[in-house]
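## retry 2 of 3
previous attempt timed out at serialization; input unchanged, resubmitting
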Amino acid sequence: MSTADFRMTFEQPIFELREQIDALEASEKKPPEMREQIRRLRKQLTETTRDIYSNLDPWQTVQVARHTERPKFTDYVGLLFDEFVELHGDKFFGDDRALRTGFAKLDEYKVMLVGHQKGKTLKERNECYFGCAHPEGYRKAMEKMRLAAKFGLPIIVLIDTPGAYPGIGAEERGQAQVIAQSMLTMSQLRTPVVCIVIGEGGSGGALGIGVGDRVAILQHAYYSVISPEGCAGILWKSHDYAENAAQALRITSQHLEGLGAVDAVIEEPLGGAHRDHHQMAGRLKMYLLKTVRELLKKPIDQLLSDRYEKFRRIGSFLELPVEGPESPS
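## retry succeeded, writing output
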């Protein structure tokens, strides 16, 4: 599927300019005035794309985060890491295909890689439950992260899920408890942990593997305690109000950085990560190398203390004195 096959309404001016450029470039003969027109249209296309993507509202950001051509976990495995060896199973129930784990190399660093996989084709998406992990996925992730801590390997987590799987089987196998247990386990791991939200960061499914020494987010990803549709279903009893919910939730990278919920925002290529996988992977690799190098220099006890304090400080609030009846004289 090409990017043009998945068109977001707000991108219509971009596609119109692309079609004009393609029509002109299809001509066998290109006189000087036509080449000049193509040059002007290309410049206009760049300016229009930059203007649109620098002014996305929260719901538009959610749409970009869900773009079918956006790089997935397996794309980053191929573009960023060497010698990836996938590890399977939770030693309890089965092997969840929505949460992948494995040994990998990031240049000179041996790491443990953990992340959600949504799949690309319909068959893959069904196998991966569209990136919605079951309890066995989180148990697998915990087991492999403990293994990484045993051998002193940094852990890199790539988050991309609309939420944990909400089915009856998942609930019967302890979905809520295992997510809480995963967060507790990650808070105590005696090795560096770097978490990156690469697309959707929805609900407990994302929070369950989101406890790290550094938590970053791609520019056009989102991170929230609940998906916009889930929030709309609770507050307005209808998914039709998902756009209103996205606006109220403050889920974009700019909001999250201001609230202290993320440590860094990684800039995406012009027009979003789905337009240039290699450039996006290059920027992500630069951030990971710098961060892993920095965290490995810290003593483990200091790392754990800083991790604890980091999550204690998240968010901003205002305390006002409680007004009550005056004390009797």
